[in-house]
Amino acid sequence: DVWKALKDIDRGINAGSVRLIYSQKDVPSEPKGTFDTWNREHTWPKSLGVGKSGPDYTDIHHLFPSDASVNTARSNRYFDTCTDQSVCRPPSALQDNENINGDDVALFGGDVFQPPKGVRGDIARAIFYMDLRYPDLELTDCPDNEDPKNQMAYLSTLLTWHELDPPTEMERLRNDRVCSRWQGNRNPFVDYPDLA
């Protein structure tokens, strides 16, 4: 069960909590799955090729706990640097956080979503994994805006994020747990960052 897996591999510091990917804060692991709690963030959106069944839908290497409202704000936006400050803003759930500012907060606007600086590499490696693991998915710098089915962007931005935010001990531990406890495979971009 994916919910159980996420509670295990992304558990927070306190018992019965999970660490949310975009805010990096711990919340109770129960309840879950509602707009007021946390849900599963598909880093490669369902609407861009993952679908609602099959191994790519439940592949834990690209699933993370997320504040439901932040996940909604992310929607199926491409990952990129949010450059237009007149359009880009933090999701409502993060706007009042006094401890987060600038690069440390998720931003979205137009067709892009920018994760906080400390998890950009994690997101990049999850997307690289999906592109490698599932041949029908394509990571590109030039998505077909008319019909972006099965495409995710932006490769060059994700490569930069991967270089600037290398795998941490926490990300390596997550990779170990996914392999040994849940899924039986590894994200090679965490183990061997030079593959990207």
UniProtKB/TrEMBL annotation:
Note the InterPro entries from the entry: Endonuclease-I, His-Me_finger_sf
Residues in the signal sequence: none
Alphabetically sorted, this entry's keywords are: Endonuclease, Hydrolase, Nuclease
Task: List the residue ranges forming a coiled coil, or say none.
Answer: none
Superkingdom in the source lineage: Eukaryota
| Single annotated GO MF | endonuclease activity
Is Hydrolase tagged as a keyword? yes
Which PANTHER family does the entry link to? ENDONUCLEASE-1 (PTHR33607)
Would you tell me the protein name for this molecule?
Endonuclease I
The species this protein belongs to is Fragilariopsis cylindrus CCMP1102
